[in-house]
Write a structure and sequence with these properties.
The protein has about 290 residues and is an alpha/beta fold. It has helices at about 5-15, 20-35, 45-50, 65-75, 105-115, 120-125, 130-145, 170-185, 190-200, 215-220, 225-230, 230-235, 265-280, and strands at about 40, 55-60, 85-90, 205-210, 240-245.
């Protein structure tokens, strides 16, 4: 195929298509629950970990989901019954384009499972995604023959865990530096905030942008949050259907609420979910 696929083919034949399990589970889960939903949650792993959905809600967020895919998922799964879009806005979001990163394989899964096209055709060609797609489609077709969707699944994650490698200070500092680089990167990705807001307004939906809690360790490594989230606040200014819920440095979240420096554990997620549910209820935005 003109590029090295040997080890990749071996890995996927061993069932090692990273993220396939969770993405397939979410695809079939939301399609089973779609007619019962009033609230759709999208975004990155920050809200995937943090938000435990209740009846009428579905958490379609996934690790490293960029704003393009959040926007496309909203359009794909919106219904007349859905009234609220709850969307995480992470530090990395303003300039993060997953197809241009080492995690580009997830774009194949979005294409094959959700029928969402690649954001940039040139990048897809450069990463040989069209050639890879042939192999991925074959393996995923076999995988789905034996796949069974969970009953009453609302998109929650099964377990909270982090590897020792990803817990080291050195790893976390490099990780945070990468988040900041994407935050400051100048491209057009931030415009998907406007597209989501405009789509919601045209279809009479409410938009809640969620800035999830981050640990003290994380916050000490970064510029002032006013700088990091300035673009989000500018895009949302004077929009009647939009609310920003900023829990970035909320003092209700303590050290033992975190799985790592910027993801909540189950205890933290229960606290976070209760706060968000109270806000939704206070606006009379939920059916339950």
């Amino acid at each position: 195929m003109g590029f090295a696929l040997g080890q990749e083919i071996i890995n996927i034949f061993r069932g090692k298509i990273v993220d396939l399990d969770i993405m397939a589970k979410k695809k079939f889960g939301i399609e089973k629950e779609l007619n019962n939903l009033n609230t759709l949650i999208v975004g990155s792993s920050h809200i995937q970990n943090a938000f435990i959905p209740h009846k009428g809600e579905f958490n379609l967020s996934m690790a490293s989901q960029d704003l393009y895919y959040s926007y496309e998922l909203i359009k794909k799964y919106d219904t007349d019954k859905i009234k609220n879009f709850v969307i995480s806005f992470s530090v990395f979001n303003p300039g993060f384009q997953i197809i241009k990163t080492s995690q580009f394989h997830k774009c194949l899964l979005y294409k094959i499972l959700f029928d969402i096209d690649y954001q940039f055709k040139d990048s897809a060609k450069e990463k040989h995604l069209y050639e890879r797609e042939v192999i991925y489609r074959f393996i995923i077709k076999r995988y789905l023959k034996n796949f069974k969707a969970d009953e009453n699944y609302l998109g929650e994650i099964d377990k909270y865990s982090v590897s020792k490698k990803k817990s080291s200070d050195e790893y976390l500092k490099n990780y945070i530096d990468g988040n900041i680089k994407n935050n400051l990167r100048e491209n057009e990705q931030i415009n998907f905030v406007t597209k989501i807001i405009e789509y919601a307004a045209q279809n009479n939906k409410n938009v809640f942008w969620i800035i999830t809690p981050h640990s003290e360790f994380y916050r000490k490594q970064i510029p002032d949050k006013k700088i990091l989230f300035k673009k989000l606040y500018e895009k949302c200014s004077n929009k009647s259907n939009v609310e920003i819920i900023d829990l970035f440095d909320d003092n209700r979240f303590l050290k033992d609420d975190f799985l790592d420096c910027d993801h909540l554990n189950r205890k933290g997620a229960e606290k976070f979910s209760e706060i968000i549910e109270q806000i939704l209820h206070s606006h009379n935005y939920t059916l339950s």
